[in-house]
Design a protein that fits this description.
The complex is a heterodimer of chains A (about 260) and B (about 280). Chain A has about 260 residues and is α/β, with parallel strands linked by helices. In chain A, about 35% of the residues lie in helices and about 25% in strands. Chain B has about 280 residues and is mainly alpha-helical. The longest helix of chain B has about 35 residues, at about 50-85. The chains are: A alpha/beta (about 260), B mainly alpha (about 280).
Amino acid sequence: MNPDKETESEQSVLEIIDLEKEFGSTRVLDGVSFKIERGEKVVLMGPSGSGKTTLLRCINWLETYEKGEIYLKGELVGYTVEKNKRYVRKEKDIARMRRECAMVFQHFNLIGHFSVLKNIMYAPIKILGENPDEVRQRAIDLLARVNLQDKIDFLPSELSGGQQQRVAIARALAVRPSLMLFDEPTSALDPELVGEVLQVMTEVAESGITMLIVTHEMNFARRCADRVIFMDEGKEVESGPPEIVFDDPKHARTKLFLGEVNWEV
Amino acid sequence: MRPSALPIARRIPWFTLVAAVILFLSVSAIISSIANNANLRWDMVGKFLFNARIIDGVKVTLELTVLSMLVAAIIGFILALAWQSSNRLLSALTWFYVWIFRGTPLLVQLLFWFNISLVLPQVTFWTPFSGTISWQTNDLISGYTAALLGLIFHEAAYMSEIFRGGFLSVPKGQVEAALSLGMTRNAALRCIVLPQSMRAIIPPATNQLISLLKMTSLVAVIGGGDLLTRAQFIYGSNFAVIPLLIVVSVWYLALVSIATGIQWYVERYIGAGSNSTQKINISSP
């Protein structure tokens, strides 16, 4: 098996093969496989406990996995293969690979003692070593894009949840990731703040960036997703374009779930 | 008339008033009996308050406090890092350290250090060029060095717990965000966890400093040369036991008051921009 396969031009941004994950005796992921091509927007859906968040965290190696493979731009996440053995990657190597994808968390996780601007500029300057002046301009442009140009010097605690999440999206965009991961970005928000975050996410989607989104926002999925993957009990139940999965689900489990979710927003 | 048109009157708090009067009378009786008690020899207190030997003792007390706090903070920090380490042996060792040094009384530890020569009569180092060098332990361990060692090792155990609690107070999401941006664990610890844990570390650490300041008086049992040692030395020859203990108390009160002032200032400083130092109102409005 060759871990670093395919050439740059034709490789998928993300390829997951037979991923399994257990917490104690609970099987959270039970053989998940899919690919995401450059520019694709994929929405991951399913009832809580179906393994969506764990899957996202595995891609970023915030959660380890032992069975199956995750390839990010052709590189195996978390492990290197040497002489028929698997070794966990060195800390620096893991950090390097994490820079390929940017994560937007359910609870925003903005760095509490950094201002809004510093939250966005920190990774490009301190971690990627880019030119500070250039990064500053980019950060200001990004803040304008998420409509928060007047909050540059605010601390995260001084912003509403929706504003914090928009900063978090700007922070993720600032590192110019190959893949953006969204972990239920609107589920911790008050209902009236969900719209502004979805608005920003829609604009990000239109800019052509590759996205993998865990969300329950059906209308957002219908509007932006190229593909919807419906998961239950750690398995992919069905997948396809949103209009097919939503309007003509094949599986009883999908139908049941779609009947329960909220179609507003 | 509607209630809203009536003035709001307050009842006279008879019980509180009577209690206050009784309390005031009894406290003044106690104070006046203390002030007028001839056995307390207030003249001797005034005479010895700024005695050169007492002032020397104050210096040693401060020196012991500051030195042992600094070194203990460094050791405690390293222990707290080691505890966090994924290396099981390392974290077990820190657990063991804290178990030993927090689990036995400081007084006992001080006596151990003072009598260490009974266990290790000689200290021998091997150096690559000049061979072995050795000293008699008794020449190395004076009352002062034993005091310093005892305080440092005891205090380090407490400081490591304070640091550990501080690290734990930082939400997990902060570290995950840092990692997902591509920081290494060490960088995340340095740039994210440490600054954010300070708010949870500084109040108990200053508290610890204040209690350490008073705990240094224990070193008097091994002749550590601190304030109490000097006072005991003086009253051993002039038998003015109570006046000198009052002198010692006055000095400790003064030092602790200063330290409390610093603590108040520091807490206000780190609490700037947050409401974390505000009192929680537990009484009725």
